[in-house]
Amino acid sequence: MRCGIIGFILGAASFVLAAFIFQLQVIKIAAPDLDYRFLYNVFSDSQFPWSYLDQGRVISRYLFPVRIKITYYDAQYNEVTEADKPGRYGAVVRMSLNGGVVQYRFITLYRMPAKVFLNDGPMAVSAYFPPSIGIDPAVLHNQAQEIGDEIKNTYCGDGDASPGLAILLAGLSETSPNDPPAVIRNNVYARDSDWWFGLRRRLGLIEKYQYLVDLPDGYDADSSQRWPLILYMHGNAQVGHDLKLVRDSGLAAEIAKGRKLPAIVISPQAAPVESWNIHLLFQVLDEVCAKYRVDPDRIYLNGISAGGDMVWAMADEQPGRFAALAPISGEGDPMEAARIKDIPTWAFQGEKDVVVPAAQVINMVNAVRQAGGHPHLTLFPDAGHGQSWDMAYATEALYPWLLAQKRGKPEVLVPGVPTP
């Protein structure tokens, strides 16, 4: 009888432990996808709007309780309890789950000086923003193109409930009437990213990127030799906290298959939810250049999909730093073409890509050519989004061409490179 009771107790304890471990695994998997929302991201009262966990009561009350703490900050990074004046605000949402799992969400809010029913009137162009929304009319005029694009892309009938509209208005409120029309590098989303990076750094909530390091053969043989550096950036499918995901695709996978390159190859991993942050990428680049023997005149950028976007973006931000660019299925900003026209560039794109249309990459390359540059473009007629980089990394001329370039020097051509 006693053995039976002990066995029952042990069995029950094992079941409870197994259930607890299973719940923790579910929490770790589900936590990055938890979303938090405000009823209104754009408001006019001094009280912040009501907010809620988007997944609802089932998750928060039954599957695993979620404890929420929200801290508000004004545009100058002061912690506040109410919005006492118009302008930008930020809500830092801390979500605590069982097992010590903590997730943060960073949400932009904007307070208008007066109540405006945005969805009561046409919103097709900036001229329809009423003066009471709190934006300088000269800014509305100078940034008309950006405003029209953002409204078209983010305004979906939600009016002042739209998170994108809050970012738009917050960015416009911080724009000078003398500022030229915005480009991707300094538009409202870039301003929003810059603002949040500053606040998160103050709060100690910056999550540094981990990265793979592939050193060339012979790196340790001569302590005086400096080596080329390739910064490789993955696509959105590889975000997370597991570098094995990074190793499974792109240039990192090519190296894993045995390709030897006479260069240091750094492959960082973007964090979930946020994807790539240009500030953190430059932080990785600075850290690597200080830690390893990098030739500053031979730093190259390469990336796929969202990582290809960042190739263009990083070059736009610091064009004098890079020796060559090799974006694959990545979109650039044609308005910035003149900034990068002197950097040797070879872009790759699949013509059947439905994620990044080939026309956008072609337009970017043509813009650089019109600015006086001589970029190369390889189009793969039968390749979709995922096939583009497989075919690009199988292009043998890519590697000698990339590593032949030096910062500030005329482009070195090698056999197999297409005519500009």
Under CATH, the topology of the largest domain can be stated as Rossmann fold
Helix and strand composition category: alpha/beta
CATH superfamily of the largest domain: Alpha/Beta hydrolase fold, catalytic domain
The residue ranges in which pLDDT falls below 50 over 5 or more consecutive positions are 120-127, 156-161
**Strand content bin:** 15-25%
Number of helices: 14
CATH class of the largest domain: Alpha Beta
Largest sheet: 5 strands, mixed
Report on the structure:
The protein has 420 residues and is α/β, with parallel strands linked by helices. It is built from 14 helices and 14 strands. The chain has helices spanning 2-30, 57-63, 137-142, 144-154, 163-173, 188-203, 243-247, 250-256, 278-291, 306-317, 337-340, 358-370, 385-393, 398-404, and strands at 36-38, 42-43, 51-53, 67-74, 79-80, 87-96, 102-111, 211-214, 227-233, 264-268, 294-304, 324-328, 346-350, 376-380. A five-stranded mixed β-sheet has the order 2-7-6-4-5, with helices on one face. Strands 8-10-9-11-12 form a five-stranded mixed β-sheet, with helices on both faces. The chain has a two-stranded antiparallel ribbon with strand order 1-3. The longest helix has 29 residues, at 2-30. It is globular and about 65 Å long.
